[in-house]
Each structure stands twice: as structure tokens, then as C-alpha cells.
Structure to design on (567 residues):
């Protein structure tokens, strides 16, 4: 990696009461679109919430955009440059899309003279420009999610964290969204938690695979696809190759984790 | 390659104009079209209409406006639709709006309405003292239902923003007080006065002190628990003496209870104590200001 890391996590452990969600995780990310894959309960949401400065790590060090999240002043500075789409989020029922996104812009301290334009741009980028003055409660699930993406990008964040952003989007919207992801990834560090392998195949340059709170694979998407090996079936797609790579990486990780050794791509470098 | 079309009877079709506007026309078609519109104004109009309606339309429109402005042409005033929604009042409304949750506003209205019904409907003389006793806890409910993980539907998003901490909490507490203060004070003033009882404004300092106490305690245990604790404590303090036999005055329960409540409000000592308590809680809140934008630990 030749670019400086915008996310540097070392020894990150997160415990929820007695269960360990993340176990001494090391991860460093630079600008680009990073897919966060893993089975349900692997710790994807726990990691995203720590990176969003919402949840505190039980132990370990988290540096985002050059600042340590443990420091109050640094954390506030990080939050101004952060975008976060939670897996589930609420909204005020009386708000229109414009008001909802503008409210988040206000919370993120977007300067007042730029806020109106920033709101319209963010809403247009997710394809909701024609519904901008409609109340959120009248929108479909997919549109609500797009409004959620709009609030996440309204401050043009340098670090964008999206937890299951494609849930509820129809196939056409998903294609548009991946296009937007690639565009955002040219400048910002985008972390997309997903269970849809095709999202990763289409939009992510790079994959982190988490299993049982540990890193099972870290590397370029093509490398994960290569792990799956050659397929004998004709017309095999990249998605299938990544799916096989995903399964192979998980299997290897479970075997090595059983032996007590954590072998990650990063450790091998 | 197609052979050059005869210039006389060939015209640009709508479909071709559209493809050209989208940049999807083949090179030969585009070349024919460009050559043709130099001499045919009808087709030129058709093509430029298609381009204006296409993706390049907004860019062309702004370029046109700039050009006109540079040669001294004043553009028509922008219609009101484009007016900034981020006016000062709109921003204030957004900041305050979510604080004034429907259920809480209804609760405040019920308390006020109940006091009026008791006073004028049932002829209950002590309505004003009861309203005064309840007034200081009403803002606490408003704070509890407007901020924090349990109450705010936007919590997960606000928790990741720089203003989601004390700034947001104070904005919402201020909104709650802005509604409570005029409503409850005016309501109290309109109720029939109780003999020997302080004026309708007597609840203001206790109300402020209890609200600040809730915020300060909330920095340790969260606003919901803090509001419940402070409100519970206040209600106990107000009703406690009434339950004991000694509190019942010789002239009846109503006056006895009014006297018991009045002790908390009347006189410079009581009001002075509330002022000191409010200042102390405010100071504690200043010391604890960073605890609201902390990281959530479980």
C-alpha cells in the first residue's frame, strides 16, 4: 500500500458482556472501496460501529484519518469528516428527505452557506432528487435506505462507513449504487459491510473477510477470487469465483484457528 | 459506411436528434446531422431542443445565464421554490422539532387541561397548587423522551456526529423549556389563586434546577434514568408530607397540602436555594460536558 492509511486499527477487541465480538483485530485501510465480508455474527457491525466512533473498543487502538478516537478533540475532528449509515436507523416521521439530510448536515457542522447545496447534491447522487420534498414515511424501504446513504455522504466524508447499504435495494438501484461507490472510492476510504458477494465483485477493490471476530482474509478482490481455484463449469462468473474463494478462505481460517494460529494475509506480508 | 445522403429531402428525425443529444449517434450520422443543421433551421431547432432536454441541459442553461449576465442582461428572478430551506427559523425548527415529541406535548396539555377542568369544572380550590407542584417535573419528561439511545430514533446517526453530544442535548432541553415556561406559567396565572400561595412564576427556578440536575445526573447514568430519578424524588418530596397524618392541617386536606407544597416555593430562602442548586448543577454539567459525546460502552 503506497497511500497513507486512513484507518489504522491495532489489537482491537470488542466484548459484548461475555461474548467476544472482535478479538485482537489488526486492520489498516487506505482510500478505495473496501468490502467487509463475513458470516452473520462475525463482528462486521461491531467493527463498523467502532470505526464510526459510536462504540468504544474494549481494548486496542483505533486511529482514523490520522487522529486517535480516544481523544475528545481528535474524535470531534474525525466526526466532522465521517459518514455513517447504520444497519438500522430511525428518522423523525414528520421530516421530508430534504429536512432529514439537512438535519444531519447541521449535526455534522456543515457550514450553513454550503449546507443547502450539499443536501441537494447528496440527495441527487442517490437518485432521490424527484422525491426530495416528500416525507420519509411515504417512501419505500429502498428509498429510505437511499435517504440514509444521502445523509452519510452529505458532508463529503473522507471516511465512509456503510453497514449493509444494499439491503432493500432492487437490482437496478444496486447497480447505480455500486457506480456511486466506485465514484466515492476514488477520494474517500469507503468501508462496505455486506453479505452480498456480488456487491464486492462489482464495487470493491479490496476485501476484508471476518470470521469469529478475527481476520480470515485480507487482500484485493481478485486474490480472493483466485483462492477459489479454477472452475470446471463453463461460463463461470467472477461472483462465483469470489464465492468459492470466500468459502475456501473461511475453511482455511477455521482450520488454522482450531490450531490456535491466526494466519492473515497481512501477517504473511 | 453509408453513402452521403442527398441534402435536399433528408431531415433529422426525432430519434436521431435524441441519440445525438445523448452522444449515442454513430460518427457518420453525427457528421451528417451537423452538416445539415448549418442550412436547415427547422432541424437545428429540433436538435437544440433535444440537447437542452438531455443531460447537458443544465450545463448549457447555466452557461447561457453566465453569458447573458456578462453582457449585462439581468436574469429573471429565481422562483420561490429554490429558496433556501436552511433559513434561520427553519434550522431552529429542525433543532427543536424532534425534541417536542408528540406524546410529551400531549402529556403537558393533559396536565394543563386537567388543572383547568379541576378548577373550573369541579370547583377544586387547590388546582393551582397542584399545577405548581407538577410543573417542575414536566420539562424532565420532555428531556427524557427526546435524547439518548432509548428515546431518539436518530440516535445511531447522531452518535457519530460532532454535535450529537451536549450541543444537541442542550438544544433539545432549551426547546422543551421554551414550550413549558410560557404554557405552564400562563396556565398557573389563569387558575384561581390559592390563599397564601406563591405566584404562578414560582416554579421557574425549581423547574430550571431540576432540569439541570437531570442533565448533570444524566451525564453519569443517561437522561432517561436521570429524569426518572429526579422526577421521582421531587414527587416524593411533594407528596410525602401529605401522606403523613401530621401534614393534614386543621382546616382540611386541601389547605394542608397547599401549605406543604408552598414550603418548596415561597420565600426568598426557598427560591435562593433553588438558584444555588441550579448553579451547582450547571457547574457540574460544565465539568461533565464531554461525557455526552463519549463512546458507548457495554
Amino acid at each position: 500500500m503506497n497511500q497513507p492509511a486512513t484507518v489504522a486499527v491495532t489489537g482491537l477487541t470488542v466484548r459484548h458482556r461475555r461474548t467476544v465480538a472482535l478479538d485482537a483485530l489488526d486492520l489498516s485501510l487506505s482510500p478505495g472501496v473496501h468490502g467487509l465480508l463475513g458470516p452473520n455474527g462475525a463482528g462486521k457491525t461491531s467493527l463498523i460501529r467502532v470505526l464510526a466512533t459510536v462504540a468504544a473498543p474494549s481494548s486496542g487502538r483505533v486511529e482514523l484519518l490520522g487522529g486517535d478516537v480516544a481523544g475528545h478533540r481528535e474524535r470531534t475532528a474525525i466526526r466532522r469528516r465521517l459518514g455513517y449509515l447504520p444497519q438500522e436507523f430511525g428518522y423523525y416521521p414528520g421530516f421530508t428527505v430534504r429536512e432529514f439530510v439537512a438535519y444531519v448536515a447541521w449535526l455534522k457542522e456543515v457550514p450553513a452557506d454550503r449546507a443547502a447545496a450539499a443536501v441537494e447534491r447528496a440527495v441527487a447522487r442517490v437518485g432521490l432528487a424527484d422525491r426530495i420534498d416528500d416525507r420519509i414515511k411515504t417512501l419505500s424501504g429502498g428509498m429510505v435506505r437511499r435517504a440514509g446513504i444521502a445523509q452519510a455522504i452529505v458532508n463529503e466524508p473522507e471516511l465512509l462507513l456503510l453497514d449493509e447499504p444494499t439491503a432493500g435495494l432492487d437490482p437496478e438501484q444496486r447497480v447505480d449504487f455500486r457506480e456511486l461507490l466506485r465514484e466515492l472510492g476514488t477520494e474517500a476510504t469507503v468501508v462496505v459491510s455486506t453479505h452480498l458477494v456480488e456487491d464486492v465483485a462489482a464495487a470493491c477493490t479490496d476485501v476484508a473477510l471476518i470470521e469469529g471476530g478475527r481476520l480470515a482474509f485480507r487482500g484485493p478482490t481478485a486474490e480472493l477470487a483466485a483462492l477459489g481455484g479454477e472452475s470446471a463449469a463453463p461460463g463461470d462468473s467472477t461472483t462465483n469465483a469470489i464465492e468459492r474463494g470466500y468459502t475456501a478462505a473461511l475453511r482455511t481460517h477455521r482450520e488454522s484457528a482450531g490450531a490456535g494460529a491466526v494466519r492473515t494475509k497481512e501477517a504473511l506480508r | 459506411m453509408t453513402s452521403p445522403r442527398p441534402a435536399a429531402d433528408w431531415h433529422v428525425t426525432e430519434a436521431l436528434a435524441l441519440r445525438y443529444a445523448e452522444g449515442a449517434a454513430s460518427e457518420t450520422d453525427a457528421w451528417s446531422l451537423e452538416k445539415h443543421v448549418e442550412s436547415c433551421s427547422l432541424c437545428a431547432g429540433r436538435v437544440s431542443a433535444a440537447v437542452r432536454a438531455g443531460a447537458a441541459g443544465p450545463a448549457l442553461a447555466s452557461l447561457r445565464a453566465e453569458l447573458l449576465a456578462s453582457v449585462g442582461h439581468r436574469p429573471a428572478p429565481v422562483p420561490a421554490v429554490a429558496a433556501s430551506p436552511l433559513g434561520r427559523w427553519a434550522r431552529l425548527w429542525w433543532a427543536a422539532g424532534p425534541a417536542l415529541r408528540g406524546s410529551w406535548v400531549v402529556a403537558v396539555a393533559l396536565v394543563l387541561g386537567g388543572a383547568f377542568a379541576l378548577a373550573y369544572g369541579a370547583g377544586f380550590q387547590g388546582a393551582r397548587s397542584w399545577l405548581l407542584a407538577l410543573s417542575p417535573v414536566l420539562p424532565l419528561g420532555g428531556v427524557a423522551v427526546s435524547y439518548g439511545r432509548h428515546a431518539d430514533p436518530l440516535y445511531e446517526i447522531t452518535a457519530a456526529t460532532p454535535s450529537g453530544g451536549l450541543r444537541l442535548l442542550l438544544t433539545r432541553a432549551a426547546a422543551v423549556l421554551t414550550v413549558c415556561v410560557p404554557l405552564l406559567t400562563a396556565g398557573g396565572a389563569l387558575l384561581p389563586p390559592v390563599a397564601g400561595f406563591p405566584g404562578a412564576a414560582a416554579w421557574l427556578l425549581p423547574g430550571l434546577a431540576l432540569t439541570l440536575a437531570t442533565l448533570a445526573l444524566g451525564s453519569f447514568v443517561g437522561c432517561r434514568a436521570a429524569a426518572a430519578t429526579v422526577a421521582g424524588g421531587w414527587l416524593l418530596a411533594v407528596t410525602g408530607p401529605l401522606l403523613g397524618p401530621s401534614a393534614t392541617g386543621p382546616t382540611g386536606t386541601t389547605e394542608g397540602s397547599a401549605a406543604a407544597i408552598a414550603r418548596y416555593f415561597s420565600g426568598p430562602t426557598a427560591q435562593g436555594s433553588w438558584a444555588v442548586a441550579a448553579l451547582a448543577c450547571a457547574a457540574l454539567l460544565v465539568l461533565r460536558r464531554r461525557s455526552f459525546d463519549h463512546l458507548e460502552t457495554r
Remarks:
- Chain B has 14 helices and no strands.
- Residues 166-190 of chain B form the longest helix (25 residues).
- Residues 74-85, 246-252 of chain B have pLDDT under 50 and may be disordered.
